[in-house]
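Researcher: I'd like a candidate sequence for this fold, 278 residues long. If you have to choose between options at a position, lean toward the conservative one.
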């Protein structure tokens, strides 16, 4: 079983890259975040191309921002949009919860595609919202069977200092604060990429600013977290850096995890490796 997650930063803009990537990598389940499309537009623009490739699709989108999708070729049952007791963004435009999570049972696993709030700054109301949202995610995972839970997506938290290019650059920022990291650990799930490659330099996000990607000045905030029954099945876990290269890329790269067997072998933490090695 091949699982993949990718923050595409507008699926409308990224569709010419997404579809060839699906054909090349052939994930059994793919989770997308920051799709930035209402449901009707996704159904018209994106869903038919996924269906042609054999995917059943669950989508949760609310318009211009956010938006998450889950597409599976190994079953898509008990679809749920949102989280249990999901908080509302106190500085958002809507009184309803944002479109940040969609879950389904695929191949015996309870898989969630999530786009965790950014938090902005530790002093911002959006930061409190982020912690409340992570608490709701924890409650949602705990309410099911955590052993077969898989949380894929842009978690907007770097789990450790090794997951940012320079910890000093983030001292006053979100993504690295102790409460965020503790909220991530409290999910009680295994970080499949880091457990596979405990000492490697691995990033999934590089700012669009000139030189950040080519200098490998990034963060690892796109994660695949899994329960105790899933983690031992990992045969490969890697970042598809090739998808971040070229014209009009997302600022995130996909993360791929192979369970039970690895079609490309245990190919390394980042493919291809960055030209700047540190």
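Model: Candidate sequence:
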């Amino acid at each position: 079983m091949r699982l993949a997650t990718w923050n595409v930063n507008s699926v409308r803009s990224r569709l010419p890259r997404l579809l060839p990537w699906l054909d090349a990598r052939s994930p059994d389940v793919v989770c997308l975040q920051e799709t930035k499309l209402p449901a009707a537009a996704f159904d018209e623009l994106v869903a038919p191309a996924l269906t042609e490739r054999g995917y059943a699709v669950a989508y949760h989108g609310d318009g211009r921002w956010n938006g998450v999708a889950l597409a599976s070729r190994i079953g898509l049952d008990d679809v749920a949009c949102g989280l249990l007791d999901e908080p509302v963004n106190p500085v958002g435009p809507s009184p309803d919860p944002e479109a940040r999570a969609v879950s389904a049972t695929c191949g015996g696993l309870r898989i969630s595609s999530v786009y965790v709030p950014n938090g902005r700054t530790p002093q911002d109301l959006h930061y409190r919202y982020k912690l409340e949202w992570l608490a709701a995610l924890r409650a949602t995972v705990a309410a099911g069977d955590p052993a077969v839970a898989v949380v894929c997506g842009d978690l907007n938290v770097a789990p450790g200092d090794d997951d940012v290019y320079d910890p000093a650059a983030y001292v006053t920022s979100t993504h690295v604060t102790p409460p965020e990291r503790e909220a991530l650990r409290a999910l009680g799930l295994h970080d499949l990429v880091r457990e596979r490659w405990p000492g490697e330099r691995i990033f999934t996000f590089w700012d669009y600013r000139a030189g950040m990607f080519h200098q490998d000045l990034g963060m690892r905030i796109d994660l695949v977290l899994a329960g105790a029954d899933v983690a031992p099945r990992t045969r490969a876990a890697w970042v598809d850096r090739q998808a971040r290269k070229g014209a009009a890329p997302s600022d995130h790269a996909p993360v791929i995890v192979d369970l039970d067997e690895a079609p490309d072998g245990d190919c390394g933490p980042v493919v291809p490796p960055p030209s700047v090695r540190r």
